[in-house]
């Protein structure tokens, strides 16, 4: 997390704290006036009581509590349900807080809340129908990263080193555990003879929010696998009808993710790969050569194309043994819905624009025109 982000978070928290103090003072003022008129009670004690009532019940708790808000519930009912479930300290103070902030439109439903949530987080959850919490930190895993590169993202954003991450995601016993937890996406195919890493391509690219300072490394990995499952499961029936697997889908999608310089080209590039597969032609995609070499290079040399490796699509026909990177949603969808073309070739010019051709002669013309070769 950079300094500017930290400053912004601190600034927002200070604003929330000031607002909270104002609300406390207003509530205390009214209660004190009432009590003074009725006989008088020490204002300090009341202030301390109200301030405590506005705090989370247990700031350190991560345990979720299932709370059911019935349809047609009044504010009184909602406050009572929250207090009875230990989510708030005092239902009366909660009601005052809600009224002073003019909060309305709470939704009925089932909520998984925690005792560490603030009143504002609880209110937002009840208004949106979703559990709302301010994350401690966020971590973005971009599209097109290998497992090794994701390890560096983990090291940069968490307390874990890249080596610790790689040790975990290559641990066979842990892989077996994950296969039991995620049977729909993690099948025996990930343990193929030529697979470099079992989980390569299976950790979904997204921005992840975490609600504790140091989530376990396993929870981070499983959060990313859950995201993959959520993005792939809608297509499992289609895959089954076509006789294809999730592993096939993620492998194909990873090639598009690495090849496509523009999102609009993914479906057309997918059509090229499909057409070449149908013709029995090797896919001849440079990113697989780089993956086979295990290094990043700005330019693939002719000698590189001959590397004897099961991932090198210049020397094998068909798809490589497994994904070569993590693919985003647009690449996954492009595999399932390619453009209908007769293209067999494509190349990217120096500006990253792709040029397609149906014949090798047209392809050579594109090379001469757009690459100057």
Automatic annotation (TrEMBL):
State which residue ranges cross the membrane: 23-47
Q: What domain of life does the native source organism fall in?
A: Bacteria
Q: Sum up the protein's function in the record's words.
A: Functions as a peptidoglycan terminase that cleaves nascent peptidoglycan strands endolytically to terminate their elongation.
Please verify whether the record's keywords include Transmembrane.
Answer: yes
Q: What is this protein called?
A: Endolytic murein transglycosylase
Q: Which Pfam families match?
A: YceG
Its chief place of residence is membrane
Q: Where in the cell is it found?
A: Cell membrane
Q: What catalytic reaction does the record list?
A: a peptidoglycan chain = a peptidoglycan chain with N-acetyl-1,6-anhydromuramyl-[peptide] at the reducing end + a peptidoglycan chain with N-acetylglucosamine at the non-reducing end
Q: How does it sit in the membrane?
A: Single-pass membrane protein
Q: Annotated site (Important for catalytic activity), which positions? A: 259
Can you tell me which family this protein belongs to?
Answer: Belongs to the transglycosylase MltG family.
Q: What is its EC number?
A: 4.2.2.29
Q: What keywords appear on the UniProt entry?
A: Cell membrane, Cell wall biogenesis/degradation, Lyase, Membrane, Transmembrane, Transmembrane helix
Q: Which species is the source of this protein?
A: Chungangia koreensis
Q: What class of enzyme is it?
A: lyase
Which InterPro entries does this chain map to? Answer: MLTG-like
């Amino acid at each position: 997390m950079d300094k500017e982000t930290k400053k912004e978070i601190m600034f927002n928290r200070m604003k929330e704290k000031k607002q909270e103090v104002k609300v406390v003072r207003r509530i205390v003022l009214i209660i004190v006036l009432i009590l003074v008129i009725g006989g008088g009670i020490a204002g300090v004690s009341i202030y301390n009581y109200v301030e405590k009532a506005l705090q989370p019940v247990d700031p350190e708790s991560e345990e979720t509590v299932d709370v059911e808000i019935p349809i047609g519930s009044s504010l009184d009912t909602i406050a009572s349900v929250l207090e009875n479930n230990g989510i708030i300290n005092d239902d009366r103070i909660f009601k005052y807080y809600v009224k002073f902030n003019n909060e309305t439109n709470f939704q009925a439903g089932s909520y998984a809340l925690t005792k560490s949530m603030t009143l504002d987080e609880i209110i937002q959850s009840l208004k949106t129908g979703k559990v709302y919490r301010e994350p401690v930190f966020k971590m973005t895993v971009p599209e097109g990263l290998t497992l090794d590169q994701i390890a560096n993202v983990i090291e940069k954003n968490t307390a874990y080193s890249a080596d610790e991450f790689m040790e975990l995601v290559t641990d066979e016993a842990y892989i077996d555990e994950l296969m039991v937890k995620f049977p729909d996406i993690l099948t025996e195919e990930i343990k193929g003879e030529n697979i470099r890493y079992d989980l390569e391509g299976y950790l979904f690219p997204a921005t992840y929010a975490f609600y504790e300072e140091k989530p376990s490394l396993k929870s981070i990995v499983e959060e990313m696998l859950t995201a993959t499952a959520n993005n792939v499961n809608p297509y499992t029936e289609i895959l089954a009808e076509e006789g294809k697997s999730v592993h096939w889908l993620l492998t194909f999608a990873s090639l598009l993710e690495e090849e496509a310089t523009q999102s609009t080209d993914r479906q057309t590039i997918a059509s090229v790969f499909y057409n070449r597969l149908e013709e029995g032609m090797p896919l001849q995609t440079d990113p697989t050569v780089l993956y086979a070499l295990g290094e990043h290079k700005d330019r693939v040399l002719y000698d590189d194309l001959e590397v004897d490796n099961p991932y090198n699509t210049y020397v094998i026909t068909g798809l490589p043994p497994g994904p070569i990177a993590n693919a985003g949603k647009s690449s996954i969808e492009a595999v399932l819905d390619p453009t209908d073309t007769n293209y067999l070739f494509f190349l990217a010019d120096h500006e990253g624009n792709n040029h397609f051709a149906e014949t090798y002669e047209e392809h050579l013309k594109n090379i001469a025109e757009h690459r100057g070769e």
